[in-house]
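User: I'll paste a sequence; please echo it back and then give the predicted structure.

Assistant: Echoing your sequence first, then the prediction.
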Amino acid sequence: MPNKPTYEELEHQLTELNNQVEILRLNSSFQNENKEKHAAELDITTKEHGFQVDISELKQVEESLKEGENRLELFFTQSLDGFFFMMLDEPVEWNETVDKEKTLEYVFAHQRITKVNDAMLDQYKATREQYLNLTPNDFFVHDLEGGKKVWREFFDIGRLHVETDERRFDGSQMFIEGDYICLYDEKNKITGHFGMQRDITESKQAKEVLRKSEERFRSLFETMIQGVIYQDTNGVIISANTAAERILGLSLDQLNGRTSMDPRWHAIHEDGSDFPGETHPVALALRSGKPVLNVIMAVFHPQTENFVWINTNAIPLFKPDETIPYQAYVTFEDITERKKAEAKLKESEEKYCSLVETAQELVWKCDATGHFTYLNPAWERTHGYTIEEMLGKNFGAFQTPEVFERDIHEFARHMAVGFVKEYETTQFTKDGKELTLLFNAIPFIDGNGNINGTQGTAIDITERKLIEKELIKSKEKAEESDRLKSAFLANMSHEIRTPMNGILGFADLLKEPNLTGDEQQTYISIIQKSGARMLNIINDIISISKIESGLMTVNIRESNINDQTDYIYTFFKPEIEGKGLLFSYRNALPSNEAILKTDSEKVYAILTNLVKNAVKYTPQGSIEFGYTINGKFLEFYVKDTGIGIPKNRQEAIFERFVQADIEDRNAYQGAGLGLSISKAYIEMLGGEIWVESAEGKGSTFYFTLPYQDQLMKENSIKQEVLPTVEVTPDNKLKILIAEDDETSKDFISIVVQKFACKIICVKTGTEAVAACRNNPDIDLVLMDILMPVMDGYEATRQIRGFNKEVVIIAQTANALEGDMEKAIVAGCDDYIAKPINPDELKQMIIKYL
């Protein structure tokens, strides 16, 4: 396949061809003009005198013109790069006197691809029929203004060079490099343009692969524990990684420009003698062209002012087909600690033994055959054998044959480079318990360089490995949690959309004309039930979010547990008995002793969740709840005769985002959060929860709460179900509604209008304070908590600074635990949560006014 010419070569060839064609065209034009000019004269002369005209020179010009055109056509069709002509229906002027915007509108609609070569069609994977007659509007359909900007610059200059990405006709991406030249007529009007394009997709992709490869190399280079430096043929350092800077105690700026033979290194041999520069491993590698490995030396560390021992490897680097190195690749590791250990091992046997006898690490020595000649007491503690039982044996006495065989080969491989560093293996104790040990070892080398034994240390990392396994289990559990969260989100989508369907669907049906009163009430009832269901889901989501993020707090105060069970019974009785179920409860304490120091809101939520579950999963039979005394705890229970829970799901139901019926999670309504919220609350209050259940026979949920026998206080707060309000308002109240949400403001205005002689509406806390100053006769303020500029808490505090009498009721969508207390502390008389129950709001107005 022929090599592609460069763009410079193509442009040069095209220019030469254009010049030739233009010369031929001008010559032809000139000849034609002369021929026309003299034709009449020649014709007259010919007629009168019978002369003949020699037009051979004109014929030669025409043939040259045709030959040039043929050469241009051949170049156009045979080129490996894409060529095209894009011509205008009519030439256009382009100068400062024309309206360029209108001209561009015309150009974009009337400049068409009139000629294209096969290479261009191959680039775009298009047929000639698809490509011909395309206009700029077709090319810039998604960015017309951007295209016009490019075209304007192109026409201003007359030529354009771009490198960009485009889409082929099959949708795939490609990168192109192109040159485009405007074409003009004899009046200097633009007739179109000629384009040359080259597909550089492969080049771009190759560059991207190279860039990523370089990034990976750089990342590896910078994160290596070993020091790495590159040096040129003179031993001058040209690059170093972070580890090299740390080990040598010099910054990259300080390292750059130094040579291996620089006397500032203060390099010394193991025996303490100076290290001549010519024997430096880098110098040897560059001179010999062979790697120089495992050279141990010490260099001065300027920060610690101590010597650092390093094990150095120098490898020469060659360019392709060259035999002389152009660089040296040098790696080294800090073996200072190892050298210190070696120094200690070379001390007297007595001093050595005194150090290792009490060591927690396992210390050992072996002879040339691999049998133990010394073991410290740590071996007895870890393995359970006496020292006498272990001496004379090898490592295989405490390992399986497979592990021992593997360790022999691994030891041999490490010893080939002089030491074993942090080699992990397994052994067994006398009673069969598996140990995981991390070994370090060095050889005993005689004067002839032969290994006549080894010595080293080992650390028992069994507990660490167990922790690692637990971490892996935790990771797997987290991944399972993510999977369950995905299932939960899918279920949550269903749970939210279902009541929304009821709300929006029946709200639309209320618009239907000719609805009867019963139909309207039925639709409204469905909307209310759907709204209540949606509110329950939102409350559960908020609660689990606070639990997950650790923001859930406990508000401990005295409360009467009998009042709460009475309330639960009263609240659920109509629903349960309406379902045809028997409903009962039992209190184990008289009312004056049923006092708990606990978070009553959380206890209420726990009991509500458990009773709700019982109602949901009990198609027939009975539901019973209550509590008994069990030592220092009250033991609560909720018992049903429902569908029961499979044995293998009885632990999973308390996990977040899991339902017992997860395989058929659409069978019952619910987000699957109630039990996990209840479990979290119970644990916060110092109790525990469990379940006893059998499929088809029902379930009993138990939970405990700490209890101390104490008498009831008279100020305990009872919960009550507010009755429907039926009053005849006096319309005498002046009411201020502070609410930034338009819909909420309209709703509250409608609810309170029967009580009001005048309603004032404001949108910010600042406006609420101003309204109270300007209207001291306001009777009631309905204060939204979250408002722009100033929130409801601060507005209430400021109002209380000059008006102690006005009744202020906080109303907010932040219906979370603790919000009521915050409102009361700020100065509000009471608190009502959104969505507001009209009867509850009316009851509050009657209560205070």
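The longest strand covers residues 173-184. Residues 462-509 form the longest helix (48 residues).
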